[in-house]
Structures are given as C-alpha cells and as structure tokens.
# Entry
Amino acid sequence: MVTNNYLDFEKPIAELEKKIDELVAAASAGTGANVRAEITKLREKSNKALADLYANLDPWRKTKVARHPDRPHFQDYVDVLIKDYTPLAGDRAFGDDEAIQGGLGRFKKRPCVIIGHEKGKTTEERLKHNFGMARPEGYRKAIRLMDMADKFGLPVISLVDTAGAFPGLDAEARGQAEAIARCTERCLTLGVPMVSVIAGEGGSGGAVAIASANSVLMLENSIYSVISPEGAASILYRTNDKAKDAAIGMKITAEDLKELGVIDGIIKEPVGGAHRHAASVIDAVGKAIETELVKLSKLSPIELKQNRRDRFLNIGRSLAQTNAVKK
# Structure
C-alpha cells in the first residue's frame, strides 16, 4: 500500500514514488516510450530504500511512525476482528466520552468485551474523539465495561493508542487522577483474562489505565512511555528541541520495553509500517491476541489475578538481577 502521508524522514521515498507515478501516468497515456524497465528499476530502488530506512529507525523516528494518522485505529480493528459488535456508551455518572470506545462482541467466535482509544481519522472525527485523549467519564465507562466482563466471565481485550489522558480543567474538576487510578485498579482485579495491545502511542496513565493486563503486547513501531518525548524534553532540557534525545533516553520502543519486562511480546510490522499495510497488521494483531487468550483461558480467576499481580511486581527485577550477576 502506498501512502500519501509521508513522514519527514521518508522524503527520499516520496520522491521516488512520485517519479514512479509520473512514469506510470505517461505509460498509460501512451506518451512514454519503453518506460516499463525504468518503472521496475525505480520500484526496486524504492522498496530497498524503504526496507533500509525501516530497519534502522531510532526511537524518535519510531515515535513519528507510531503517531502516523493512517495507522489502524480502534474501529478498524473492531470492523475486522470483532463480529456482532455492540458498542456501549456512558459511565452512568456524568456522560459519554468518545475518546474511549468499547462494547460487546465475538472475537474468533469467543464472546468478549473490547475497549480502546479512538483518535479519529478526519478532522471532524479527531475533534469528536478528542484525539484519543479521554476525560474521567471515559475511564469510568471502561470500568463499567470491565465490571460487566467480570460478571459474565468474558475476556477483555484493550487496544491502546493515546498521547495521554486529557489534561483540561474540566477533566481535573471531575476527578481525572482518581478515575485513572480506579480504572487501573479494575484491570488488576479482574477475574477474567485480559490482553492489551499498544497499537500506536501508549502515553502515560491514560494508557496504563486500560493496559494493566495479564498480557501486554506492542506493535513493532509503537511507543509506550510515562510521558511524551516532548514533555520530557520540556522538563529535563527546558526545550522541545531535545525531544529526540528524550525519546532515546526514556527507552520507549518495543525492543527496549521487552528487555525491561514491561511488555510480553512484540507484533512485527511489515516493511514501511502499519500505516502502509493495515490489513496484514490487523490480522497479525488478531492472531497474537488469540494466542494469548488461549493460554490465559486455562487459568482460574484466582490464578489470573495472581498472574497479573506477579507480572507487574516483577517488572525490571529480572533485568536488575541479571545486571547484578554480571557485576
């Protein structure tokens, strides 16, 4: 799949693909003589350049890929992976929050509850969903859905893609911190399997609130961090210009977080990223979730809770022990 939304570091690829489009148009119009060989040559050059580029992405470039507007969103995953999906709205306390979506459906013929951030694609949709940044009612809606899952013995799937919880005054006035804490607590106390996938950005408590699962997976070019690189740079260096340095220092990539024990697995993306290959990425995510649910379905409610507790208490400990042995 060719994207029209090129990232700044993809400029050489954009130039090659523009030239290819011009040659294809000329050939179709009959004004280009014997250009097939040139088109083939340029396509090979473009594919190689793209492969080389994505084989060596630094954390800052991965941050940009994770934020690409064409990456699959919550609704894209639901449309393909969840059958008989019935969305549920509202927190039964204040109202509905469009940044967090969720409902009931069937995943691989298995009844489930699915929850996730939705950023939206068009300008109108992004405003409607507040760019995936939830207010307290969004997290309280997630709690309501998890309560339902626990009551009826349904596994929970969560798809994370947010820069963080909404930091506005109205959100703070309605108890943003408390809502995030309660939502995180509900994840940890579930007696049913829970699998989370960091599909794009996993920002701060806004992500952790629905990602405190038995199994946490990350797409290869997604990021997961306590604060955005820009936010960290503004605090540490007093300037956003150091965002790249902050991204490198914070260890926000899937590879770094797998080594630290923060996540359990990495879902590979095709060359060029999920925004170029949405269908195959959604299929890969579905297979990864199914694998985890099959393993977790063998555990009792007590074992699931203990598994989740042990998982989070052990984060970083295995690496610390390994480093201690090396010393």
